Amino acid sequence: MSLQAELIGPSNLSITGVDSIDAAGPGAITFIRSGRFAARWADSHASAAVVTRGISVGGHDPTKRALLIVDNADLAMVSLLKLFSPPRTRYAPGVHPTAIVDRSATIGQGAHVGPHCVVGADAVIGDGTVLVSNVHVGAEVSVGAISTLHPGVVILERCSIGSACILWPNVVIGADGFGYVPAADRRGLIKVPHIGHVVVGDGVEIGANSCIDRGKFGPTTIGAGTKIDNHVQIGHNVQVGRSCIICGVVGIGGSAIIGDGVTVAGHVGISDGITVGAGATIAAKAGVISDVPPGETWFGTPAGPHKEQMRNFAALRKLSDHMRKLKKLEKAALQSGLLAKEDLDD
């Protein structure tokens, strides 16, 4: 591994681990990606730091500690974390005796089907894929090569998971969408059948306890390379593009369209049928009830463009001052006789 770094300090330091700048002790390497972190370097006990080029780091003694200057500290961090990562559990190929695999299912070469897994009729498990334990794969499901499905994952019938995907515990793919219509007599709700499926592209990662509903008709789709955090709900017939980031506790209503490269921050709600254009960013806790143009950043509830919302919030912060001034003017007008009390009541 090579970071292609410029070294400022000794080259013979012993580095034994990776930690945050505040928690790191002697022997640890840390990361400085902004001036806020650089200001903490003088008080840190870390032996070395990887620093994004152009950031000034005060309090550095090059006779005792080392700085490694790189173009991007975040990318360097990925390489270092891989270097120090403990070895991952290796799963032996084969089917565990407690697993139930339909005789019509296809299990790929080198695949692992762990304890208490169920693989339904005509399902296909790709080469080298791992079903860790207690995984349910329904009838006619396909899971691509070298994917990992952690304990409790449920993939219901006719859904498709791509290659090199990671599904964390208790992910559910292919439950019915949340669709009901009032009964003719208005005394109950009638469930809408959902006869579609879900298609998840290659290289997708889905966090624990997230749910992706099947389409009412046709597929719900997740584009290749998209990363979905924990506790995310994606409704029926949603189309999520490639390489999106969807953070925790996001809810996306049915038939919404999320373009390529969109970032959706935590606790965002997106209404049914909304389109979020490619490259857009939705800030945390936003409530999106209208279409978002490509490349824009929106926040607030209801969500709006960043500059417009900033002006609105600035005005709102001054509202209490304006109200106090208005009360003083009203009082003065009443005392001078320019304003009658009944006018205020109106």
Task: Kindly describe this structure.
- This protein has 346 residues and is of the alpha/beta class.
- The chain folds into 2 domains: 6-84, MurE/MurF, N-terminal domain (Udp-n-acetylmuramoylalanyl-d-glutamate--2,6- Diaminopimelate Ligase, Chain: A, domain 1, 3-Layer(aba) Sandwich), CATH 3.40.1390; 94-306, UDP N-Acetylglucosamine Acyltransferase, domain 1.
- It contains 5 helices and 38 strands.
- A 12-stranded mixed sheet has the order 6-9-12-15-18-23-26-29-32-35-37-38. Strands 7-10-13-16-19-24-27-30-33-36 form a 10-stranded parallel sheet, with no helix packed on it. Strands 8-11-14-17-22-25-28-31-34 form a 9-stranded parallel sheet, with no helix packed on it.
- Strand 20 and strand 21 form a beta hairpin.
- It is flat and about 95 Å long.
- The model has no long low-confidence stretch (mean pLDDT 94).
Précis, in short:
The chain is α/β, with parallel strands linked by helices. The chain has 2 domains: 6-84, Udp-n-acetylmuramoylalanyl-d-glutamate--2,6- Diaminopimelate Ligase, Chain: A, domain 1 (3-Layer(aba) Sandwich), CATH 3.40.1390.10; 94-306, UDP N-Acetylglucosamine Acyltransferase, domain 1. Helix content is 15%, strand content 28%.
The share of residues in helices is 10-25%
CATH class placement of the largest domain = Mainly Beta
Number of domains: 2
Low-confidence stretches: none
Biggest sheet details: 12 strands, mixed
